[in-house]
Specification:
alpha+beta, seven-stranded antiparallel sheet, 4 helices, about 30% helix
């Protein structure tokens, strides 16, 4: 008796086995995507080391500034874009950098929620030179974000690691 014949003769067992296999697959996918537990599920973001001026990846749930590969607390969130294919490093560019004030960072790390953030505590700046950190909700913050979306191409794509 072949496998196909056995499966046809035992359709109830086959159906139950398929449903169990499907449930196991859903649980595994949910677990690895962070739907169970408090982990981030391995989702990363781009960060920028202010000391070395290089991109690196780290857990997306970390609150910047974070410890960078250079060892210092110089890692800030990097908003990365591309005019073409994000997989080509040569086509990616950093639009702006982002971090939080020390008080907001402490609060976010304690509560793990972004619901009660004062917009004036989310600081951004251009990646070039030593530009000043400004609130993202300020006039200058708006100009930085607009500049990042128009400096290289008309419709840049947001890139993720």
């Amino acid at each position: 008796m072949g496998l196909r014949t056995w499966l046809n003769n035992n359709s109830a067992v086959t159906t139950i086995g398929a449903v169990v296999l499907l449930l196991v697959a859903l649980v595994v996918l949910s677990w690895t995507n962070g739907l169970f537990g408090s982990g981030s599920g391995g989702v990363d973001s781009y960060y920028y080391d202010l000391k070395t001026k290089k991109l690196f990846t780290a857990d997306a749930q970390k609150v910047p500034p974070i410890t960078a590969p250079s060892g210092a607390n110089n890692g800030v969130l990097a908003h990365v874009f591309s005019c073409g294919d994000c997989s080509a490093a040569s086509s990616r560019y950093v639009g702006w950098l982002e971090k939080f004030t020390p008080a907001t960072k402490k609060k976010l790390e304690k509560t793990h929620t972004f619901m009660e953030i004062n917009p004036q505590t989310d600081l951004i700046r251009l990646p070039q030179g030593k530009s000043k950190w400004v609130p993202s909700s300020s006039m200058m913050g708006s100009k930085i974000i607009t500049h990042a979306h128009t400096v290289k191409c008309k419709q840049p794509k947001t890139c993720y690691p």
